[in-house]
Amino acid sequence: MLLDKSDITQLIPHAGVMCLLDGVLGWDASSIRCVATGHRDANNPLRTDGRLPVFCGIEYAAQAMAVHGGLAGAAGQRPRAGYLASVRNVVCAVDRLDTLDDALIVTAESLIGDDSRIVYRFDVEHSGRSVLSGRAAVILDIGPL
């Protein structure tokens, strides 16, 4: 594993139980591959009525995108905040994440972007099978106007 949870919390604003990723398995200028196991945790902060709907995987993917942005940004600079603006073409192959017994592999690939926005393709896999995929548009914080 290239980065662990403590490294990840240095790159994104999420901390404690809200940091959903356990590690970064690999990354390059256009993509990232992460691992997560907290979907099985009864105390997962995204659970509702004891269940973790598959759509919560979008937050796992959004955190992978944020980590990628932090890693791919300029060295020594504070990562820019990003805001999930939309998700499209979402495909779900299961109803829930909490019933999946193995780790989740979360990938995000930058498709297009500029200084103010970026579009990623994302995929959440379990045991080599996609359980959630789609595209997400992220608006980057441009600072005070």
What features would you describe in this structure?
The structure is a single chain. The protein has 145 residues and is mainly beta. Helices cover 14% and strands 39% of the residues. It is built from two helices and seven strands, in the order E-H-E-E-H-E-E-E-E. A seven-stranded antiparallel sheet has the order 1-2-3-5-6-7-4. Strand 2 and strand 3 (31-36) form a beta hairpin. The longest helix is centred in the middle third of the chain and has 16 residues, at 57-72.
Summarize this structure as a short list of keywords or feature phrases.
2 helices; seven-stranded antiparallel sheet; 14% helix; mainly beta; 145 residues; Thiol Ester Dehydrase, Chain A
Please write out the topology.
Blueprint: E1 3-4, H1 5-8, E2 23-27, E3 31-36, H2 57-72, E4 82-92, E5 104-113, E6 117-126, E7 129-140
Antiparallel strand pairs: 1-2, 2-3, 3-5, 4-7, 5-6, 6-7
